[in-house]
Design brief:
InterPro entries: Cadherin-like_sf (IPR015919), Ig-like_fold (IPR013783). The chain has 114 residues and is an all-beta fold. The chain is built from no helices and 11 strands. The protein has a 4-stranded mixed sheet, with no helix packed on it. Strands 5-9-8 form a 3-stranded antiparallel sheet, with no helix packed on it. Strands 1-2 form a two-stranded antiparallel ribbon.
């Protein structure tokens, strides 16, 4: 979580003494960090899948995406990176690129599912 600090800025006219103040808050979010917890996984057709390929911490509203699309029956949670569902179509081993983006960074991780 970001630590927010409030500041007050005052501008004073040296000749008339008139002044004007404004207050603003400034916070610095933790850096986006992505760690890969799964590098390769063999899945069984028609069996429940619930796996976390990456762990995402920090950043500002990070979003997870995957390319190419997952096999039919599997879904990617764009907030957590969790892959869930029941694969209904047999596919060969495929390398997927998982990208995590936020307002400041775009780490990329690779995952092979078969």
């Amino acid at each position: 979580a970001s630590v927010v600090t409030t500041y007050t800025m005052t501008v004073r006219d040296g000749s008339s003494g008139a002044e004007n103040s404004t207050t603003f808050s400034l916070g610095i979010a933790p850096a986006l960090a992505v760690t890969q917890s799964l590098y390769s996984k063999v899945l069984s057709m028609n069996s429940n899948v619930n796996l976390t390929a990456i762990n995402v911490t920090g950043g500002v509203s990070p979003v997870v995406s995957i390319s190419p699309s997952l096999p039919q029956g599997l879904n990617l949670n764009a907030s957590t990176g969790e892959i869930t569902g029941i694969p209904t179509v047999e596919t060969g081993a495929t390398t997927y690129t998982i990208s995590v983006t936020d307002q400041n960074a775009s780490p990329v991780k690779r995952l092979t599912l078969s």
